[in-house]
């Protein structure tokens, strides 16, 4: 296993948004993850009062969740955590590796959203992450994940305009898929308002639904549902998984 600092530096180097947390906040401002998380908690654990979010980034979702829950956020990347402390000083956000983090407390809800789990590629490391989830879950606690469950396999590039703090940027995206490793790579080419260019190569591990069930069950969680937010079951490439910690 690589050291947390080395891993953080590697992840940051692959993604422009991680190198520029303010831009990350703007680009992700339309995220519905916090709302979906609250809906699942209302459905399966409406009495929940405490929550820990692994891979919380700039704390954008955590800020919404903290209006209702007593929250702690954990993220691997010091730059994201430093930005979160400046932008959202009222939140408890800590630097940590979700493969090894131990906060010394158990929560009613454990979350891992924003594709954070997909940055863990190795089977053993994924098992370590799920052990971390279990170590922070009270009996009956909910686990809420958002992660890729199927690859994006289209080969033709797509182009979109993205608003940034300094004006509109153009981003062109294409995907590649390696079935052997289950890695879906997103290649992004940015044309920034300044005229500068930037390139990303973001590698995400796809965990298929039955794999997610196996990892969750291995540490004492029972999967209650998987849904992609479309209202039509599980059809899209990204899904929310909700599970409950059961007595072992």
UniProtKB/TrEMBL annotation:
Keywords: Methyltransferase, Transferase. One of its GO terms (biological process) is methylation. Pfam families: Methyltransf_25 (PF13649). Residues 52-140 form the Methyltransferase domain. SUPFAM superfamilies: S-adenosyl-L-methionine-dependent methyltransferases. CDD domains: AdoMet_MTases (cd02440). InterPro entries: Methyltransf_25 (IPR041698), SAM-dependent_MTases_sf (IPR029063). GO terms for molecular function: methyltransferase activity. This is Methyltransferase domain-containing protein. It comes from Streptomyces minutiscleroticus.
